Structure formats: C-alpha cells, structure tokens
Amino acid sequence: MDVGGNGGGVTVNNKQKVMLPGKSRGEFARNQRKDSEGLSEAPDLEFEYGDSDKWAAELSELYSYTEGPEFHLNRKCFEEDFQTHVSDKRWVDLDAMQHRAHAMRLLDGLDVTGRERRLKLARAILYMAQGTFGDCSSEAEVQHWMRYNVFLLLEVGAFSALVELLNMEIENSAACSSAVRKPAISLADSTDLRVLLNIMYLMVEMIQQDDLADPPEWRATRETFKTELGSPLYNSEPVSVMLFGMVTKFCSGHAPHFPMKKVLLLLWKTILFTLGGFEQLQSLKVCKREELGLPRLPEDSIRVVRNMRAASPPASASDLIEQQQRRARREHKALIKQENLDAFNEKDPYKADDSREDEEENDDNDNSLETEPFPLERDEVMPPPIPHPSSERVSFPKGLPWAPKVREKDIENFLECSRSKFIGYTLGNDTDTVVGLPRPIHESIKTLKQHKYVSIAEVQIAKEEEYQKTPLSGGEEDVEMCATELLYQGILPSLPQYMIALLKILLAAAPTSKAKTDSINILADVLPEEMPTTVLQSMKLGVDVNRHKEIIVKAISAILLLLLKHFKLNHIYQFEYMAQHLVFANCIPLILKFFNQNIMSYITAKNSISVLDFPYCVLHELPELTAESLEAGDNNQFCWRNLFSCINLLRILNKLTKWKHSRTMMLVVFKSAPILKRALKVKQAMMQLYVLKLLKVQTKYLGRQWRKSNMKTMSAIYQKVRHRLNDDWAYGNDLDARPWDFQAEECALRASIERFNNRRYDKNQSNPEFLPVDNCLQSVLGQRVELPEDFQMNYDLWLEREVFSKPICWEDLLQ
Predict the structure, then answer these.
(1) Are 80 and 555 spatial neighbours (Cβ–Cβ below 8 Å)?
(2) Tens digits of per-residue pLDDT, 302-353?
(3) Domain boundary assignment for the chain
C-alpha cells in the first residue's frame, strides 16, 4: 500500500493487472482487495491497554542492543570491589546487615573526586539495581533481587546522591562543549549520564510497582519516596522539572550528547509514579466529583472500553463497487410479487442470495461475530423481515455502550430556539420556564435534564469567574498542594519551551519524518563508536535504531497524555494552557503526519531481537544471530509499544480538539478524514473508538457526498461513540458549520488562562487598581527620593531652565 500526503491511494502490482484465465471478475476483485488491504481480514488484536507494558518489556526497552557488552562490565566492576571486602561469599549468601554495610560503602565511594573511580562504583551500584544477575538462574530470581536491592539502595540514601551527581553531569560544561564540537556523537560520549539514568530508572520502575507481598516497611518507604519525588526536595524542584530541563537543553543544541531515550523514559515513569496512572485518575475523578457535590459518573469508562469489540475496517474502493452491484440486484429482487414476499422473508436478511455473494460477505468480514450490522449492508426497498426465533441467528448486544450526556449550554440553546420559534421571545439563561411551549417540547426538556452532565471543568470555570469578579470579597483560594499542582508550578515558567522540545523529538522519531540537516540527532545513545562493517551488524543496528525511535515515541506520547489528563482534573485552565501551547507548536498536524503511513505495518513491526533483551541476555548463552533470524523477528501478533503509542496520540488529538471549533476545523483543513479512516483498519476496539470520535466531530463539515459514501463509518460512530442528545453531528445544518473568527476563540481562551495564571501564581504582579494609595500631603512630601547622579550634577542648570526662567502666574496657581 502506498500512502501519499494527499489522502493516498492503493498501488497495485503490475502482475495483478492481467486477469488469469478461469477467474471471474468478482474473484479477481476479491484477490486484488486482499493484496491491497492485506490485513483487513486480520483477527481482533488481543491488546489490553494499561499504564505500561509487562515488567520484562519495560526493563528491556531501557537498554539499546548496542549497550549489550556493558552488562558484563557492570558485573566485573561490582565483583572486583565486592571481593576486596567479602572474598569467600556471593551477594545472595550475605545477611541483611552485610548487604546494608556494602551498599553504604559503595555509596560513600561516589564522593571521590576521581572520575574513573566514581564511574566504576556507579557501575557496581547499577549491577546491584540490575538484580546481581550473575548469582541468579531465572527471571523470577532476577526480579526478586532487583526489588530487594532497589529498596536497600533507597534506604541508604542512594537516590538523592544520584540526583546530585546527575545535576553535576548536566552542568558539566566541558562535556557539553566537547560534544558540540564533535562531528559524530556516539554511545561513549554519554557513559556517565547513562549509568546514572539507568540506576534512577530501575529504582523508580521497581518501586512504583505495587506488590501485595511487600513487607509493611517497604510500603511505607514507597509512599515516602513517592511524596519526595513529586516535591521540590531535590535541588529545590521536583525531579520531573530537572528532567524537562535536560530535554530543552538537548533540543537547544547545547548538550547533544544527552541520552534522550533514557531521560524521556525516566521522566515518563516519574510522572506516572508521582501523579498516578489511568486507574488512579478514574478514582481521583470520582472523589473530586463527590467533593464538588456533583452526581456520580454514569459509567466506568475504562471498563466500557475494555468490553468493546472492534468493528470491521471501512470498505475500500473495490468494496464499494461490489456493494453498488449488490444493491442493484437487491432493488431488482424487491420487485418480486407480493405473495412471494413471505417465503422470501424466511431467509436471513443479513445474508446474500447466492453462493458467490456468500463468499463476498465472508471476504468482507461484514457478517462476522465481532461486528454489528451496518445500515448500508441492508439498504433495501422492502418491508422489514418478520422475526423468527432461531438459535443460529447472530445475537447483537442490546443498547449502546455509553449513557448519553447533555450540557447545560445545550439545554439553554434548545429552549432559546423553541421560545423564539413558538412564542417569539427569549429569556436568556432561564432553563425552567416552559410557559407557552407545546407539550412535546416539555417532554424533550424533561429528557434532556434527565441526562444533564455537569463536568468538573464547568464548576472550576464558574469558580474562577467568581474570583475574577470579586477579588477582594472572594477571599483567598484554598489550593491543595498535591503532586500535580507542585509539578505545574515547577514547569509553568518554561512550559512553552518544554512542549516545543517534546514535539521536536517526537517529529525526529516519527517514522514518516525525512532526515533533514536541521533536525536534532536523537541517536546519540544508540550509535556505537565504530560503525558496523558486516551486513549482519548493519541489520542489527538498523533494528536497534528503529526500536530506539519507537520507544521515544511511546515515552513522549505517554508523558503528554498523562500531563493533559492530570492537569485537566487539577484545574481546567492548567490543561488549557498546556493544550494551547501544544496547538501553537503544531501538535495537530504532527500527529496527523505520524498517522499518514501504513499504520498496520507500524503496529505489526518486528523491531526487536528477543534473545538480546534484558534479562534474557544475561541469563542464557546467546545463540548465533543470522540475517534470517533478524528478519523473522518475534512471533507476536502486534508490537505492544507501537499500538500503545498510536492510542495515546489519538487520545491527545481528542483532548486538544474536544469542544474547540477552531481546532476541529484544523482537522478538516489538514484533510485528516482519509488518514483517520485508514487507521480504522487496525482491529482494536479502543483505537477505533478514538478514531471514530475524531471523525464524528468533523463529519458535518465533510459534505453530504462523504457521508453518503461512508455510511459504514457513520454507523460505527453511532454504535460506539457517546451520544449528545441534540448534537447534529451527522448533518451540516448546525450553527457551528458557519465560518467563525477562529482567532477570536483562541484569543479569548488565552486571555482567560493568563488571568488565571496571574491571579494564582504571579504574586509580585498585583493589580495596581487594588493597591493602597497614600493621600496624605505631608507623608508624600516627606518621602526621601533618590535622584540620579547626572541630575544632581546638573541641578543648577535645571533650576535655571525649569523654574527661574519661567514666569509664574500666582493668581492661577492659588485658584
């Protein structure tokens, strides 16, 4: 499949153009469709969305395959130091006191001034954090000792020492200037940084996993560490802010040797641990609604999405031609005599009338159990069939997955339209007076009010408006200093730069990006000192580079989504500030550019070599790698990280465009509909849901012809996306379909955000209208005024020119 920037098309191999003898046209079209779509008949992807992948996968992604030899170097550094103090025992044979004593000895050694000695001790500590794998025989043992050693290191104060060392390396101007001058940066330039970031990542990753078997003291340590990590205790700022600083320094070109993949992974895990994942977000949302006195959520969105099934992908051009032929035959069939209709209705209406069409239906996968029937497939000019109970008939789920919602604003608009239509007057924001309106309108209003949903954001906006109206009588706002609030305060001064830096790296890591001279080099921590000389080494490095980019996309997408969701829950204007800067930094076209590729190929990419993954590679003898084994890859149906990244990016796009008319129009202007429609080929329910949401918001602007030729997609939207009761999403007769001044909408939002940030965070810049004024003449004249030196030197000249040489009219002055 060859996807172009303008919506793309399917290129067919020249060999397929010659029709083989004995093949019917329909059979040829089916084969052509199979070749062009390839994976459209693929089964549902057994993917469970979560905060992160499995334990082993998350650990292995920290290391590039080029770093493989360093595992044994770490072990060597540890054993050399260990044997000088404990000669006749292994690490696993020591008791807790001896473990603690050795850990403290290693930590004290980090204070030495010699760089080589410090690096060796840091490698020994890294070997401990990696689970002292030399004494282990299975992954379960490695995991056990990793957890034990990490809690031991945290207990003796290793993390704060590592933060200080990392800060020292960040400020190391000699290393930065050396890296800037180098024409090609390799793995060797970031050795010290990589060792420190590896230890910190392993500590955060192991401690953030809640294990029921943990002793009570570990649980207490975990909670304390979580609080400290999100507080400005380390270097008077949260660790996340320090890592954001590393990202911007890297993107500015002042530190091209920073190992960006490890920085981003540590940043993601730190945010995930300190703020909480998606399950914690859901419970926080429930608690916050209770605090504000709002009704409970109609359903648990995580559970609803997990129970959804994927729909078949939308039809291709060849499908549409066949459907038109079938419809023509069905219209002909509708002219059957009336007495034969009953007999005809005995047939299953969801099946076609001959064996050839049965094959076509199976090929299209339209009557499979995973999907619900679409109106286009049964668009017949016939009365509906008489239902007959049959055990063989497909049973479709009753009802829609989501409870419908209505905003207060929607009820107001509906009432205003009804009043002006039936009575000829309006009442503003009144949603209770229904005098003079017809009975059906009363029923409609009752139904709308039953499904009214008040969001946390609406309450927060109303409160903010109160604070702005009554700055003196409103009193001081009680701001809860949670981890999200502390992080927002930390990144607020430089948030625009942080967003631009993240998007720059995302652009460089996207598979659709072309290599440009001005783009940043994100491969500093994957390229070896000596470039490969054999074909096998080149293939291995190619897999490593592609994997490296995929992991970076995964980390950035997760960071952005977590921040957007947590900021939105904490305060809507914090979310809007971040979202607006993402939009200003061209996040919307960037994500669309990312999806403008063969997305099925991206999701099924096999850029991993399982025998080189940690901890497998340190526990087993490595088999000899061949070009065939590298090409074959693993046996997984899909790549977890790539599907996770795609869903995250779609969710970010939804967050940025929801209820924002100007941004929805950006989706239309950038021709996102064909790009998103191609993403529906991935048979995963959650991914399809977010694609359908994005298509729903722009459907009314795509024209009648688009809706007519995409009825299958329209049906999928109706079945899977939440309904807004009076939202005319499927038609173009809504007020929002008219052109508006989009800039005004963004400017009004920006003004509201600035007022919020100034009121809550800018304590120095108080409103001059509310400052006290000194009206006493004596105190004003008695104030000592510091005059500038040049004025004092020329004071006589000033007196002569401004006072003595000018006549004074005393009468006017006294009046």
Answers:
(1) no
(2) 889 988 888 877 766 556 666 667 666 665 554 444 444 344 343 333 333 3
(3) 55-274, 408-451
